[in-house]
């Protein structure tokens, strides 16, 4: 699916072509010596033993390919179909698939079986590459720091570079959307969300951005006017609820949570438990590790059990 980022089209939700052309290739018994043994004297090589009928192989293979590409040439990958290369599989004592071997300097140095989680595969590749960090992960951390420092445009540029290298990276997509919102381009973020495939929308980070936009759209007027209403009539829970929405839309999540907690404290059943439900939405939008989420959840629990 084509996704427009600042006037340039990139594809989201599909695999990118192999960088460098030879980072990932299929090997046979006849080519194994060249493609693996000799090649591993230059760059470490992972060998994925798989078969078309193997269910876990269909999960592991694409993930391994993606992560090898992300390593930017520090590691290469060779795929061996065991049905077509049974003698080679027997020689390397492949008893079940998927099985992955790591070669360096012409020798197998590590291996694993089964479809491991992405985090463990990253560790496996990093160790194989001499402790080199995944460049995409490093760039994501840098982009988040730039965004946290208030440079939305700088973050947008870096997130776009990441997406050009890894077009289906959900954290990068979520970061790009957050940067758009921070740059005052919420409408552009909404347009991009409308283009995303279901598997990307299901990612927690992307879903949190979608929730944030939905809540921001429910801001009920200028913050100053709503503050004045709440100050003059503190018991007007609708005004306080509207003020919380407006504050969240203005990126003041801490103050928004404060007013929602106050609505709940004054009347926890108000408007069919609206305050607590809205708090859950805010926590979802901020993410579980956000300080406002952690503090807000603790304070909400204290009110519930008081």
Automatic annotation (TrEMBL):
A Pfam cross-reference name: TPR_20
Gene Ontology BP term (one): response to stress
Domain of life: Bacteria
UniProt keyword annotation of ATP-binding present: no
MF terms in GO: protein-disulfide reductase activity
Any GO CC annotation of this UniProt entry: cytosol
InterPro entries per the UniProt record, alphabetical: Thioredoxin (IPR005746), Thioredoxin-like_sf (IPR036249), Thioredoxin_CS (IPR017937), Thioredoxin_domain (IPR013766), TPR-like_helical_dom_sf (IPR011990)
Keywords, ordered alphabetically: Disulfide bond, Electron transport, Redox-active center, Transport
All residue ranges annotated as the Thioredoxin domain in the record: 10-130
Family: Belongs to the thioredoxin family.
Protein known as: Thioredoxin
Organism taxonomic ancestry: Bacteria, Pseudomonadati, Pseudomonadota, Alphaproteobacteria, Rhodospirillales
